[in-house]
C-alpha cells in the first residue's frame, strides 16, 4: 500500500533494537481516517473469502482490526494479555513472547467468542518474528476454527515471521513490508 | 441511546462488585457495526463543537473512540497504562485508580500528541466513579488544552462519577446511564 509506505517514511522513526516507531498514526495517536483506508485495503484483499470473525490482540491491533471490520461488517474479538477480573468462564490461552518488550505474556480469548464454525481473519499492527500471529493461530486452532489468513499493517520482513508463516501455507498479507531499516534509511519489499 | 439500553439488557451480565459485563459487544468481542452507530451518536451530540482531537485510554476505550473519530474525521490519542519501551520523549503522566481491578496505575500521553491548541473530546467505554475521566482531564490540563466534553458508552449513574463531573461544569454525555443494577434487574436513567 503505497500511501502506507509514504507515511512510514514521513512519520516513522527507527529506535535502537530494530523498533520502528509509528506512534503518530498507529501506536499511540491513531490517524483514524488513514486507518479506515487501511481497513478498506484489507477488505479488498480478502474480498470473496468467507470470514465470520476478525481476531486481534490488545492494544495496538484493535484500531486496524476495527478499520477492516467496519468495512467488512464483521465482529472483532481481541485477545487479552492477562487474565482480568472481567473475564469469567472458560478461555483459550497461549503464551506469546513480545519482541518489543522482551517478555513472555499470556493471551486469552473467552470460549464464548470463538467456535468451530468460525472462519477467522487475524489482524495485527506489526509482524516481526511472528510470535503474536503464531499465538493467535494457536488460539483459533484450540477453538477448532479455521484461519482464513493474516493481515498486518507493517511487516518487518527482515525478521522473518511473515515468510516463516507463508512457508507453512498460511496466507499472510501485509500492507507494507520493510525489507531493511537503519537510522538513516528504510527500504520496502516490492509487492 | 435506546438501542444501547436494549443491548445491555439483552447481552449484559451483572457480576459481583457492581461490575457490568458487556464482553459480547464492547470489552472483548466488539460489535463493530454497533460501535460505529454509537460513534455516530457521539458525533451527533457534539456536532457544532470545535474539536481537534479525541482522547481515550487503552484498552476498551479505543474501539468507541475509533467509532466516533471515524464519523468526525479526527485523530484519536490513547493514553497508555504504563511506560512502554516504545514511548520515548516527554510525557504527561497521572495516576488512576481502577475500580474493576482494584489497583492504581499510571497513564501517560506523549507531549508530541497534545498541545495548548487542542480542543479535546474525551471518550471512554465506562464511567463509574469517574477516576479515569479525571485522570484524562488532568492530562489535557497539563497540555494546556481545552476539554470540550466527555462521552462514555455506559455510565453507572449510581457510582456518582458522571454527576460529580457535571457539578464541576464539565459536559458529560453518556449514551446509556444505568441507575441501578442487581443480579435480576437493571434500570436506566431517563434522558
Largest interface, with counts of residues having CB < 8 Å to the other chain, equals:
A-B, 43 and 43 residues
Largest sheet of chain A, in brief, is:
6 strands, mixed
The strand count of chain A comes to 11
Seen as an oligomer or otherwise, the chain set is homodimer
Secondary-structure element order of chain A, N to C: HEEHEHEHEEEEHEHEE
Helix coverage percent of chain A:
25-40%
Number of helices of chain A: 6
Shape of chain A: globular
Walk me through this protein's architecture.
2 copies of one chain form a homodimer. Chain A is an alpha/beta fold and 191 residues long. In chain A, the strands form 3 sheets. Chain A has a 6-stranded mixed beta sheet, with helices on both faces. A two-stranded antiparallel ribbon of chain A has the order 1-2. In chain A, strands 6-7 form a two-stranded antiparallel ribbon. In chain A, helix 3 packs across helix 4. The longest helix of chain A is centred in the N-terminal third of the chain and has 14 residues. Chain A is globular. The termini of chain A are close together. The relative contact order of chain A is 0.16. Chains A and B meet through helix 2, strand 3, helix 3, helix 4 and strand 5 of A and helix 2, strand 3, helix 3, helix 4 and strand 5 of B.
